Amino acid sequence: MSGxxxxxxxxxxxxxxxxxxxxxILFLSLTTGGLCILGLQAExxxxxxxxxxxxxxxxxxxxxxxxxxxxxxxxxxxLNLDIASISSISxxxxxxxxxxxxxxxxxxxxxxxxxxxxxxxxARLVEFLWVPDTYIVESKTSFLHEVTVGNRLIRxxxxxxxxxxxxxxxxxxxxxxxxxxxxxxxxxRLQLESWxxxxxxxEFRWLRGNDSVRGLENLRLAQYTIQRYFTLVTQSQQExxxxxxxxxxxxxxxxxxxxxxxxxxxxxxxxxxxWVSFWISLDSVPARTCxxxxxxxxxxxxxxxxxxxxxxxxxxxxxxxxYLGICFSFVFGxxxxxxxxxxSSVQQMVAKDRATAKEVEEVNITDIINSSLxxxxxxxxxxxxxxxxxxxxxxxxxxxxRDKVSFVFREKMxxxxxxxxxxxxxxxxxxxxxxxxxxxxxxxxxxWAHYMYF
Length: 454
Prior knowledge:
It is a multi-pass membrane protein. The protein has seven helices and twelve strands. It is of the alpha+beta class. It has two domains: 75-254, Distorted Sandwich (Acetylcholine Binding Protein, Chain: A); 261-361 and 401-453, Neurotransmitter-gated ion-channel transmembrane domain (Methane Monooxygenase Hydroxylase, Chain G, domain 1), CATH 1.20.58. Strands 1, 2, 3, 5, 6, 7, 9 and 10 form an eight-stranded mixed beta sheet that branches. Strands 4-8-12-11 form a four-stranded antiparallel beta sheet, with no helix packed on it. A hairpin with a 3-residue loop joins strand 6 (152-157) and strand 7.
């Protein structure tokens, strides 16, 4: 009896016990057995989570919280990228959105196995392995695609190499210089770096240099053309240490044909249209005024429309703003030209009327004076009094100094007014027909030479 367990001894004594006590002991025994079974199942589940199912011999003692070569040499992680698409490039937000396939390779000596085969594992087994904490520098928003399952891949090689691939869509900041918009070239970057492991623990490198990036040469963008791209490996110095940073830098050249047809050509046509008024008579006030006001309002509408796609970048003086400002100046100048010519014509007509009235008045006064003098001479001749002739000696007359200064000042001002007064208003239109097109052509030459080649 000494070899029996307490539970077995108690079961042997059941027949001699009270029936109620018998039922109580039987219930306790069943409950204790159920708890033991649940404990064994929980222990089995816990042991499964500590190892890779099917690879228990490889992951015995494996700790996913410690990097490979922990305490030793840094882990060498090789990266390569496939750029699937660049869906949008925003000048107002100064960023771009791209979908990329990110592939990372490193060697983990703890995962060595015999043979030459490689095994592709379910992506959910990533939770059992150590993976690098790579992040995208200057990323605003990013997400991992989850349809139909998480777009991740894990592949193990016999030499301990691990391939970890992800499909990511990210929006990355890109500082843009819009001073030459829409003839600009923007330089954007995609930078990858470890979040927590510095250079003593993890070192990044490109798998095949510039050939590590694929897909950019095949992209077709709405407004841009990718001119060139290259890869760099730099060091990022931060307060927590020095980190290895991989940089993909690419240049985007904007396609300007759309803007030439949408903005530049219409604005140039409006300038040419404003010159039509030079061939219309100065007397046709409604026609010339209508052309001038219409072209000015059309240029204003065109300037407002060119700014609407970039509402947050109006603080920049862009190349297109400069050109529209030039065209607006020429259109407004044509309207002012007519105002000057018409004003000069009116002033000339008023001056002619004044001159005619003055001549008539002087003739009348001269006739009256001559008749009066002749009558007076006849009356005095009877008394033998001789009247002096027209030759009168004024040498004895003098003029005050203040009167002399006033007379000289009026004379000078009269000369200046006559110098700046347009004697023939029709010459304004004649000269404008030549000067306006010539100045506009020279301005275009300097404008396009500056923004295209400098």
